[in-house]
Amino acid sequence: MDTIHIRGNRRLNGVIPISGAKNAALPLMIAALLTDETLKLTNVPRLTDVRTLAKLLGVLGTDVQRGETAHGDTLALTTPEIVSTLAPYEIVSQIRATFWVLGPLLARCRTAKVSLPGGCAIGARPVDLYLKGLQKMGAEIDLVEGYVLAKAPNGLKGAVIRSPIVSVGATHTLLMAATLADGETVLENAAREPEITDLARCLVAMGAKIEGIGTSTLRIEGVERLHGATHNVVADRIEAGTYAIAAAMTGGEVTLDGVDAETFDAALSVLRAAGAGVDASQGQVRIFRNGERLQATDVVTQVFPGFPTDLQAQFMALMTTAEGESEITETIFENRFMHVQELARFGANISLHGDKALVHGVDKLTAAPVMASDLRASAALVIAALAAEGETTINRVYHLDRGFDRMEEKLSACGAEIWRAKA
Ligand code: UD1
User: Fold this and answer.
1) Residues lining ligand 1, CB < 6 A?
2) What is the pLDDT of residues 47-96, one digit of tens each?
3) What is the phi/psi pair of residue 240, to 5°?
4) CA distance 304 to 168
5) Using alpha carbons only, what angle is made at residue 406 by residues 400 and 409, rounded to the nearest 5 degrees?
6) Confidence of residue 297 (pLDDT cuts 50, 70, 90)
7) Buried b / exposed e across 103-140, counting CB within 10 Å, b at 16+?
8) Neighbours of 65 (CB within 10 A)
9) Which of 27, 46, 403, 21 minimizes the C-alpha distance to 202?
């Protein structure tokens, strides 16, 4: 397995181009199952998760043509017909989002057999909300040998579905299913993350009828068929937030290019409160810190527009050297503190109390060999390593490759000493 090496204690200075969002690209690719015409996506990030999903779509009948541009890849996805409605364990266990094919398969073919998902080990992550929603739309669901067997012999019907908790994946899945259902579906307490908005806009470009985009109530009037479209993937607010935190951690000045501040405003507010400089303009965000030590700041993870759980680990890395004690509360996933013991290897002082982590700022971090445990936790280790004295080795970097497009290249261009050793 590859390892990443970082010689730390250097400021970052420069411009970082922000890639298309992984969490938007994946559902957008899945939307290609809803039509027999071509869905063309631009600004697709180069990630192993994208390649894994493309493999699954290929099995289901999608022809995927990939092109490269300076601003990410383009994908032309065409599904003349669904040749298989089986999403196998071998692929679905690798990325949780592949489970979302359940909605389009059921809508287009009235039947689907999809393995229960895998993905980052950050909690129990059940799928009850997806299944209850589809049942309300008339699907019959059985669980057999680790697979969800879903059938809607008479097609999916519009329904009012109120989710007891906000789920990104259930919203994506039910939204896609509802576009081809008979009648109106109302998704109440829907997720309104920017990636949901991006999917909804793409579906509208494909001919779907959706109202309430960007709000927590989505009204979808089912149509007979969807057609092809071209769609540019929204910028990755989690990648942008990660580099914003890296800039605040190391000092210096970094401009994040191609991302709108509104999509990660909660993170930028917390960075300002901690003492980092933040300037936002159209499509760019500048982060700077020169000399002054950051102040400990509390955060609570929340659904959008709150502070994202996907930046919790990175923010914890930042707080390890802030002045004072920071309380970090994780409300979305019950087991998302696996990075704590790895951060301790750099000399961080963190104690865990249920859903809270108390971070007592230390004067400095020192390099250590560490192990990436999940996608966003790996980014936290990179951030700690960039500030630590000495050379850090990060093992299990395949987690980073799942979700960060050319991270070493982007950080090196800003003066980081970071390199990859091939296995
Ligand atoms: C998505 C994101 C992930 C992010 C998360 C929360 C993608 C590919 N992944 O994951 O990066 O961390 O949103 O912003 O976009 N839940 C249930 N039952 C369900 C579904 C969810 O109890 O049927 C719970 C989950 O266990 C979790 C909470 O709801 O505690 C939120 O999960 P959800 O929003 O569904 O996350 P994902 O879609 O898996």
Assistant:
1) 23, 26, 96-97, 123-130, 165, 167-170, 191, 195, 309-310, 332-333
2) 999 999 999 999 999 999 999 998 899 999 999 999 999 999 999 998 99
3) -60, -45
4) 10
5) 120
6) very high
7) bbbbbbbbbbbbbbbbbbebeebebebbbebbebbbbe
8) 11
9) 27
**Per-residue pLDDT, 374:** 87
Please give the order of strands across the beta sheet that includes 277-281: 12-17, 252-257, 284-289, 277-281
pLDDT tens digit string along 304-316? 999 999 999 999 9
Q: Which helix (H) or strand (E) holds 407?
A: helix 407-412
Strand locations in 204-324, DSSP E? 209-211, 217-221, 229-232, 252-257, 277-281, 284-289, 299-300
Which residues in 158-224 belong to E strands, given as ranges?
160-162, 184-188, 209-211, 217-221
Whether 118 has a pLDDT exceeding 80, the answer reads no
Please provide the size of the chain in residues.
423
Please give the distance, rounded to the nearest whole angstrom, from the Cα atom of residue 169 to the centre of ligand 1.
6
* Over residues 186-201, mean pLDDT: 98
What are 250's two structure tokens? 């190391």
Catalytic site includes residue 120: yes
- What pLDDT is stored for residue 122 in this prediction? 47
Q: Is the pTM of this model over 0.70?
A: yes
Element (H, E) at 75: strand 72-78
Which helix (H) or strand (E) segment holds residue 108: the answer is helix 102-109
d(CA 20, CA 50): 11
Residues 97, 111: Cα–Cα separation, whole Å: 19
How much of the chain is in helix, strand and coil states, percent to nearest 5?
A: 35, 30, 35
Taking the centre of ligand 1 as the mean of its atom positions, its distance from the CA of residue 147, in whole angstroms, is 19
Residue 283 alpha carbon to ligand 1 centre in Å: 28
Residue 388: alpha-carbon gap to chain centroid? 27
pLDDT greater at residue 70 or residue 98: 98
Residue 81, both tokens:
């017909």
Shortest-distance Cα residue to atom 19 of ligand 1: 127
